[in-house]
Amino acid sequence: MTIQFSTKIFPQADLGSQKSLKSSLKSLLAQSTDCLILAYSKVDLDGFGGSKAAKAKSGFLAELDQLLGGSVNHANVVGDLDSKQASICVLRTEKTWATNGVKAKRVLLVGLGDLQLASERTLILYSKIARAALKVLSGNAIKNAIWFVPSFSLTHQGSFITDEVRLTIQYAGDQAYRFGVRQPAMKFKVKDSPDTFKHLVFAGNDACSKELKEAVAQGIAMVEGMNLAKDLGNLPPNICTPTYLGKAAQGLSKKVSLKVEVLGLKQIEALGMGSFLSVTKGSDTPPQFIVMRHQGGKAGEAPIVLVGKGITFDTGGISLKPGEAMDEMKYDMCGAASVMGTMYAAALMKLKKNVIGVVPTCENMPSGSATRPGDIVKSMSGQTIEVLNTDAEGRLILCDALTYVERFKPKVVIDVATLTGACIIALGHVHSGLFSDDEGLVNALTKAGKASLDTVWRLPLDAAYHEQLKSNFADVANIGGRPAGSVTAACFLSRFTEKYHWAHLDIAGTAWKSGAAKGSTGRPVPLLLNYLIEQS
Ligand code: BES
Ligand code: MN
Ligand code: ZN
User: pLDDT class for 54, splitting at 50, 70, 90?
Assistant: First the structure.
């Protein structure tokens, strides 16, 4: 456990009403904490006498100033309070504080900006504010902090609180994340030392206590799911093999109420997954087909099915990739990792839905037994595929998984894959690519993305693009040339999804970061969880 989150309710605490202001502040400041985190807006600062005035007037900052024996005023006089978005001011304990019963060692004041402007009341702005505040907690002596949620509300309406709190936890989790600390396979030394910061308490009042507790529980589960996804992604490909992923899934079934089944080579052969098997042929390590079930809904309820691409290393096969940054192809199982992380989190939050996670996993290697460009293989659906490029392997393993999941009579199927380099060219590292003909599903996923700031952008899937996949020798070719490479990849998959509602997420640009910050992002776990929560 790297960081702990909890809630504490101060029933009457309200910094917005003049009447309860003093008692609210008193009760918050009386907590023994390394840091009490409060937010203030331009209106609060104006009430305090504007940015230049040295004398305290009325409102939240004035009351705080009184209880802190003039500390707020000092900060203002030297220019540390400017109410700009995400500006930070840390007040540190002084002798006078104790005389007013203040036990907090620090008060962190965060600027919300000018909330009278509707344009500033967005989740994106909140995310900047939250990140700035969290940064103060990292890398110094602060071990624990209290975050007073109502003072951060940009809307002063309940609706926003849930997204805000989950996002704060997500970012705190990102900040606290260290590679390898949870994975027993990592016998070698973990490079980064953990932060001293260990415990974040979300404080609320009666008006938001129910939402707050729920959001914190969801956020905690989400961080666990993201940590799992990040760890699996970051693990080296000599450790994180298909067998390792299978064992990791089985390990989850011992921690939470997931039912896990792992099929091996013989069973995959028996299912007739000739397309999946064609990818694994050059590898010495056996493929696995993982099925994870979370039964949180009614017995007969149609499940939501998540399918994740699990290529534990993608060399390109005989259509070998160039050497530069090839190590990053260990991340080609991030679709699988995000599905496993989401399933784990769904089970942790006891989500009231039936969800099934499916992961076809293998390595894409060149060898004397590897599939050649020009080989024709038969998929589980019966369609024959001409493999014109062995590097377009993700769709070859996914298509059989997409046929397999028909047996679940799913409500919807969402596949997640680091599918195409072309998606990075189209959308960069900001949005994941979203492909679907189902408007309802497109809207729901787009909304879930915005609410978690794990966003998607829709790309087309028209019939016209299918032309590029024509083969002279088989039912379909596995590549459609360079133009619209992400779209033709999605079109290929769509040929195997006719029996249910389906969406495809191409996370090639969003699943990990390259360069100095190289590492798995845990995306799109927040998006998927947000979608699942909204469905239940
Ligand atoms: N895993 C890659 C896609 C990828 C490449 C993701 C780089 C992230 C970064 C996928 O298997 C692949 O190699 N796709 C090919 C398809 C092409 C051969 C049609 C690609 O994108 O070049
Ligand atoms: Mn490839
Ligand atoms: Zn790949």
Answer: very low
Q: How far is the CA of 393 from the centre of ligand 3 (A)?
A: 6
Give the CA diameter of the chain.
86
Residues around ligand 3, an ion, CB closer than 5 A:
311, 314, 332, 394
Mean pLDDT of 509-532: 98
Whose structure tokens read 């005389």?
Answer: 99
Q: Comparing 190 with 196, which gets the higher pLDDT?
A: 196
For residues 321 and 309, give the distance between their C-alpha atoms in angstroms, rounded to a whole number.
18
C-alpha dist (Å) from residue 479 to 67, 259, 318, 454: 68, 36, 15, 29
Atom of ligand 1 nearest to the CA of 479: 19
Nearest protein Cα to ligand 1, atom 8: 508
Q: Could you say which DSSP state residue 285 is in? A: S
Report helix, strand or coil for 430: coil
For the 4-207 domain, the top CATH level (class) is alpha beta
Q: How far is the CA of 465 from the centre of ligand 3 (A)?
A: 21
Least confident range of 75-84, 223-232, 308-317, 366-375 = 75-84
According to DSSP, residue 105 is labeled: S
CATH of domain 228-535: 3.40.630.10
Site to probe by mutation for ligand 1, drawn from 399, 420, 468, 514 as the one with most ligand atoms within 8 Å of Cβ, is 420
Residue 390 CA, ligand 3 centroid: distance in Å: 10
pLDDT at 314: 98
User: What are the two backbone dihedrals, phi and then psi, of residue 96, each rounded to the nearest 5 degrees?
Assistant: -65, -25
Q: Please report the atom of ligand 1 found closest to the CA of residue 481.
A: 19
Q: What percent of the chain lies above the pLDDT cut of 90?
A: 88
Distances (CA, A) of 370 to 280, 287, 315, 511: 8, 14, 12, 28
User: Whose CA is closest to atom 5 on ligand 1?
Assistant: 421
Axis crossing angle, helix 439-452 with helix 159-176, rounded to the nearest 10? 70
pLDDT reported for residue 194? 81
Catalytic residues: 321, 395
Output the ligand 1 site: residues, CB below 6 A: 314, 332, 389, 391-394, 418-422, 479, 485, 508
Give me the helix-helix angle, 209-234 and 525-535, nearest 10°. 140
Q: Using 50, 70 and 90 to split pLDDT, how confident is the model at 118?
A: confident
Cis link prior to 524 (omega < 30° from 0)? Answer: yes
Residue type, 166: R
| Protein residues with C-beta less than 5 angstroms from the ion ligand 2 | 314, 391, 393
User: What residue spans define the domains of the chain?
Assistant: 4-207, 228-535
